[in-house]
Write a structure and sequence with these properties.
With 82 residues, the chain is α+β, with helices and mostly antiparallel strands. It contains 2 helices and 4 strands. A hairpin with a 4-residue loop joins strand 2 and strand 3.
């Protein structure tokens, strides 16, 4: 499961630097998550760091990208070149 930033985003800039995979960037209206890079911090942390720091709780599981923990781990390994 990749994460998704909703329209409730206030563009506070705290999530982007927390992403260990550089999957978060500024979009046209709100920050966006690159689902191909998002591992929900699997391989780095126990919980998604962006969700931990978001002051408005606007980061949710993307219903269009259902991935198991094993799939997220594999994506992490691919991104790391392992």
């Amino acid at each position: 499961m990749a994460l998704l930033i909703t329209d409730d985003c206030i563009n506070c800039d705290v999530c982007e630097p927390e992403c260990p995979n550089n999957a978060i960037s500024q979009g046209d209206e709100v920050y966006v998550v690159d689902a191909d890079k998002c591992t929900e911090c699997v391989g780095h942390f126990d919980v998604p760091q962006c969700k931990e720091v978001c002051p408005v709780d606007c980061i949710i599981i993307d219903p269009a990208r259902q991935e198991s923990r094993e799939e997220l781990q594999k994506k992490f390994e691919t991104l790391q070149g392992s």
